[in-house]
């Protein structure tokens, strides 16, 4: 129970754009339980490097896409994402997913005109830095992190018809009114499309019941292309039609999905951030090693336009065949 005390004191109205300071190591450890968690959310070893630094709140983490059991949207309480604060994988076997970190508001103090809030009163800490390291790899070859434990930290589902989430999207500063309304309209349309495939004869369906924005691959075997991209290279993302021509009927190329959220970047130029060769599987906690390395691009993240404005800002993975070198 002690581990939730600070969080309840720190319930505040942090919004996107607010400036905060990450509390000191000792202050944060004092909010954690013996598992190194607060309200079932891990404070990870990779987060220690940010203690004492100031950041801008990028988004209120009010909800998130369930990428473990794919149950839909889940609700997170008292947490935010900070601009530029991503996991570097240093405490988790060098995972290269670069997830946006979750920060409980108890781990932060608001910065207003140069003043900072006082630390909340706390009992002697139950957690240490060794606790964080042990929690990161509870057994050899299996890792635990914020991403693998998200269903514990965000146990409650958020149904599409719960209008409160859309009000929060706007009032928190996560999204403007027009973007939020658009996401609702697209969501309703795609629900209709799903139902039409089940209940309507083909002639009465809109684009055969395909979900917007209408991506449909047709191949049974997908092509491979390597152009030797490395960090710092500038690339142009190919057109929608060019990319669709490389996809199978599940919209994958050699097992990698081309997601609707990636479509907005078609035709844009971007810089290669890194080649991704290993990530932690969120379901099993085991390290996955890609047979076909993929690419992440600087500033190219999932914006949640087709996922109810989810603020996780996950890096999409790009096959090299979807990119062309500019310089």
What does this structure look like?
The protein is an alpha+beta fold and about 325 residues long. It has 3 domains: about 1-160, no CATH class; about 175-210; about 215-325, SH3 type barrels (Roll). It has 7 helices and 17 strands. The chain has helices spanning about 1-10, 25-30, 130-135, 150-155, 165-170, 175-200, 240-245, and strands at about 20, 35-40, 40, 55-60, 65, 75, 80, 105, 110, 115, 155-160, 235, 250-255, 255, 270-280, 285-295, 325. The chain has a 6-stranded antiparallel beta sheet with strand order 8-7-4-1-9-10, with no helix packed on it. A 4-stranded antiparallel beta sheet has the order 16-15-12-17, with no helix packed on it. β9 and β10 (about 115) form a beta hairpin. Residues about 1-10 have low confidence and may be disordered.
Q: What integer is the average pLDDT?
A: 92
Q: H/E element string?
A: HEHEEEEEEEEEHHEHHEHEEEEE
- Structural class assignment: alpha+beta
Tally of contiguous helical segments: 7
**Gap between N and C termini:** 55 Å
Radius of gyration in whole Å, from Cα?
21 Å
Shape: globular
Unreliable segments of 5+ consecutive residues: 1-10
Total number of domains: 3
Helix content: 10-25%
Task: Note the beta-strand portion.
Answer: 15-25%
Could you give the order of strands across the largest sheet?
A: 8-7-4-1-9-10
Please tally the β strands and state the result: 17
Outline the biggest β-sheet: 6 strands, antiparallel
Present the secondary structure layout:
Blueprint: H1 2-9, E1 19-22, H2 25-29, E2 37-38, E3 41-42, E4 54-60, E5 63-65, E6 73-75, E7 79-82, E8 103-104, E9 108-112, E10 115-116, H3 129-136, H4 150-153, E11 156-158, H5 164-171, H6 177-199, E12 234-237, H7 240-244, E13 252-253, E14 256-257, E15 269-280, E16 287-297, E17 323-325
Antiparallel strand pairs: 1-4, 1-9, 2-3, 4-7, 5-6, 6-11, 7-8, 9-10, 12-15, 12-17, 13-14, 15-16
């Amino acid at each position: 129970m002690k581990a939730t005390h600070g969080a309840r004191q720190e319930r505040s109205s942090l919004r996107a754009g607010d400036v905060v300071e990450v509390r000191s190591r000792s202050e944060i450890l004092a909010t954690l339980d013996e598992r190194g968690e607060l309200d079932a959310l891990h404070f990870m070893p990779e987060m220690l490097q940010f203690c004492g630094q100031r950041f801008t709140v990028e988004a209120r983490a009010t909800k998130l896409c369930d990428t473990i059991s794919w149950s839909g949207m889940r609700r997170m309480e008292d947490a935010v994402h900070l601009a530029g604060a991503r996991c570097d994988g240093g405490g988790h076997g060098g995972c290269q997913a670069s997830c946006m970190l979750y920060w409980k508001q108890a781990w932060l103090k608001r910065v207003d005109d140069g003043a900072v809030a006082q630390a909340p009163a706390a009992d002697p800490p139950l957690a240490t830095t060794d606790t964080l390291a042990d929690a990161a790899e509870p057994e050899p070859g299996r890792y635990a992190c914020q991403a693998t434990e998200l269903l514990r930290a965000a146990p409650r589902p958020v149904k599409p018809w719960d209008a409160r989430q859309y009000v929060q999207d706007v009032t928190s500063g996560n999204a403007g009114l027009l973007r939020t309304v658009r996401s609702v309209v697209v969501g309703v349309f795609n629900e209709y499309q799903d139902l039409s495939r089940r209940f309507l004869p083909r002639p009465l369906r809109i684009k055969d019941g395909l979900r917007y924005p209408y991506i449909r691959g047709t191949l049974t075997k997908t092509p491979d292309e390597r152009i030797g991209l490395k960090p710092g290279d500038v690339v142009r993302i190919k057109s929608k039609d060019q990319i669709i021509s490389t996809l199978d009927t599940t919209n994958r190329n050699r097992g990698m999905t081309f997601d609707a959220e990636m479509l907005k970047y078609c035709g844009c130029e971007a810089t290669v951030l890194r080649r991704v060769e290993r990530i932690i599987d969120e379901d099993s906690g085991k390290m996955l090693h890609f047979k076909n390395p993929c690419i992440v691009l600087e500033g190219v993240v999932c914006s949640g336009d087709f996922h109810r404005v989810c603020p996780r800002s996950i890096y999409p993975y790009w096959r090299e065949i979807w990119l062309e070198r500019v310089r």
